[in-house]
Specification:
Length: 443
């Protein structure tokens, strides 16, 4: 490939490229994901290499591109083509190929890549793992603000859309009524109602049409199971529709149940039992600082003085930070082979039990809020406590950088497995630039 441009961004990408070249195991792990289940790797059309897939994913997260934008820039930009090792004669890749290949990289592979980067950073003395700062944040799912009426409306329109597709594309005769217009009107009535009492009748009608749509869908599943298809495409389409309906019907029934309990019976439904989206049902309800409500997953991050994010724990549910303290410190020991000499954590991680457990392995443990603990019990002196407390605040800037520059605030990939891959890919991309900036330029 020709030499790169004399531009700070191009030189930074060159240093990132040097890091990836220095750890060839990374490409081997990506190749394993791409060829998983493939019997003969020498057959078929020539596609993207493992190196191109990994580097394209890094560009996507670092620049915040959509797959369509990524496909364009990999054709248009000399610097990005050079970084992704796309040859001069190669035409580039379509957005569908980029999406399919990047999404194949598993969250376990991304996590292992990050561990290799942590080892590289320790070897280059950029991040030694002797000091750690831990904090938690929320990564939101790509869903709208949930309400009972909007969820019921989602159920009606998605189920009806599937039934219409089944009738038009498979030619299967099924009796159903399209209630989408009626459901949308009831949802708007509920939205604009001025009192709780005024919402009851529209809710009852909306529940009625949702139950009817579920009933039509159950009949459709039975019909699909009894049909015989001679065309391979029709058979594949029928299997995909059956799978979609079998996933959607239980979710719709849960939405109907929670709406009846909340609206008609004035019952409080526990957060663990609520469905906040039929598109991303894995999403949790996270109430942060008793004021803001988020829909996604709590994420615990461990960083160091260089703001290298050495670890990420994606949590299901909304457990208290204090239940994660020991786990995060143990995970640090697994990554670096030793516990940190000093650890600084947010106040939510504090408790006497956690302090006692941490002090068995760590010299100084600082919680940003004392929570009834003494400075002398946490650190060897008040000066050390104040220094570590200031040190802990630095991870806030690291989290802000991840959210602003790498899309960490909101996951745009579908399913919980892809959610984890997305979060890890953001962290890997950010860490590569952190390491690149920490490397001494070659003179």
């Amino acid at each position: 490939m020709p030499f790169g441009l004399e531009h700070p961004r191009a030189r930074e990408l060159d240093r990132v490229s040097e890091i990836l070249d220095a750890i060839p195991t990374i490409t081997d792990m990506v190749l394993q994901d791409l060829t998983h289940g493939v019997v003969n790797r020498n057959c078929g059309a020539e596609g993207m290499t493992a190196e191109q897939v990994l580097r394209a994913a890094i560009i996507k997260q670092a620049e915040g591109f959509s797959y369509e934008d990524l496909a364009f820039h990999l054709i248009d930009s000399h610097t990005y083509r050079r970084f992704c090792r796309i040859g001069f004669t190669q035409k580039g890749f379509r957005k569908s190929a980029l999406c399919k290949n990047i999404k194949v990289i598993s969250p376990e592979t991304w996590e292992m890549i990050n561990k290799l980067l942590a080892a590289y950073g320790e070897d280059k003395k950029i991040e030694k793992g002797k000091e750690a700062r831990i904090d938690s944040t929320v990564v939101c799912s790509n869903i709208h603000e949930p309400s009972d009426s909007s969820l019921l409306w989602d159920c009606v329109r998605v189920l009806t859309r599937s039934l219409t597709k089944m009738k038009e594309e498979l030619g299967i005769s099924i009796l159903f009524t399209d209630h989408r217009r009626r459901a949308k009107r009831r949802a708007l009535e509920i939205l604009n109602a001025k009192s709780k009492k005024a919402r009851v009748n529209p809710y009852k009608d909306l529940l009625k049409v949702t139950e009817r749509s579920v009933g039509y869908s159950r009949s459709a599943v039975s019909i699909l199971a009894s049909c015989e298809f001679h065309d391979v495409k029709d058979m594949a389409l029928a299997m995909a529709m059956t799978k979609d309906l079998e996933e959607l019907i239980p979710l719709a029934e849960r939405v109907i149940d929670q709406t009846k309990r909340r609206v008609l019976h004035d019952e409080k439904v526990p957060a663990t039992e609520k469905v906040v989206s039929i598109f991303e049902p894995h999403s949790d309800i996270i109430i942060k600082d008793r004021r803001d409500t988020y829909y996604g997953h709590k994420v615990c991050l461990t960083g160091g003085p260089s703001n290298f994010i050495s670890d990420c724990l994606i949590v299901e549910g909304n457990p208290a930070d204090s239940t994660l303290t020991c786990e995060m410190l143990d995970r640090h020991e697994q990554i670096y082979g030793h516990y940190p000499l000093n650890a600084a954590l947010d106040g939510g991680f504090a408790s006497k039990t956690n302090l006692k457990a941490a002090k068995k392995h760590i010299k100084n443990v600082c919680f940003a809020k004392k929570r009834g603990l003494n400075e002398e019990d946490m650190c060897q002196s008040p000066w050390v406590y104040k220094r570590l407390r200031r040190f802990r605040a630095g991870i806030e800037s690291g989290i802000s950088w991840l959210k602003r520059s790498f899309g960490f605030s909101r996951c745009t990939w579908k399913s919980f497995e892809s959610f984890k891959s997305y979060a890890w890919s953001c962290i890997v991309a950010a860490n590569l630039f952190t390491l690149a900036r920490g490397l001494k330029p070659v003179t």
